[in-house]
């Protein structure tokens, strides 16, 4: 258990979608030091998971000041290949939500750094969803998580990956309420059981 009460073991799926957020240690996008996931069920119930990662690069003071994660925080944590390897099948089998496109870029960069395959999931940007649901915020603080937190009365600790993932998931769920319709592409993939067949001969 961590300080925000997030899960430290992965819950059982399948899920309607997973929101994902990362925090980074320093100057490179691929230096991920925390991954947060928010699992959203068919009924809209949410479960939040987070894990620290040894970024194998120095922490910049600016980053540590922002998210509170330092070399001491990640001492003994797994490296990106270990953590990502444990998450790969789960992430690859679900639609993913991110707030902005930074998280996808960071994962892509980390995969390139370690020569790992990037997940092929469909990504939804909850900033775009929020713009659609709350157009009045354009020019009135915008659609970043900090302003949405204020506007929607969200409760979360900004710049913790698990908390930000939960916030992104909540933004999508609240937007669907406002718009009166579910985002049709965010649905449980009924083909999950067949996702991992050997396709090498196709």
From TrEMBL:
The keyword Kinase does not apply. GO terms for molecular function: 3'-5' exonuclease activity; nucleic acid binding. It comes from the Bacteria. Pfam families: RNase_T (PF00929). One of its GO terms (cellular component) is cytosol. Keywords: Exonuclease, Hydrolase, Nuclease. GO terms for biological process: DNA metabolic process. Residues 16-181 form the Exonuclease domain. InterPro entries: Ribonucl_H, RNaseH-like_sf, RNaseH_sf. This is Putative exonuclease.
């Amino acid at each position: 258990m961590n300080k925000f009460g997030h899960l430290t073991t992965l819950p059982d799926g399948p899920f309607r979608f997973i929101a994902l957020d990362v925090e980074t240690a320093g100057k490179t996008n691929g230096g991920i030091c925390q991954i947060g996931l928010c699992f959203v069920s068919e009924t809209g119930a949410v479960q939040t998971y987070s894990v620290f990662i040894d970024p194998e690069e120095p922490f910049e003071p600016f980053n540590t000041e922002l998210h509170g994660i330092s070399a001491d925080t990640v001492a003994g944590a797994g490296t990106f290949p270990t953590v990502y390897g444990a998450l790969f099948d789960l992430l690859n089998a679900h639609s993913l939500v991110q707030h902005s496109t930074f998280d996808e870029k960071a994962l892509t960069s980390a995969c390139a750094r370690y020569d790992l395959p990037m997940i092929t999931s469909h990504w939804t940007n909850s900033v775009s969803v929020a713009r659609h649901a709350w157009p009045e915020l354009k020019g009135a603080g915008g659609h970043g998580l900090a302003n949405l937190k204020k506007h929607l009365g969200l409760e979360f600790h900004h710049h913790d990956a698990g908390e930000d993932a939960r916030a992104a998931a909540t933004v999508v769920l609240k937007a669907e309420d406002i718009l009166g319709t579910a985002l049709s592409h965010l649905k449980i993939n009924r083909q999950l059981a067949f996702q991992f067949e050997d396709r090498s001969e196709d």
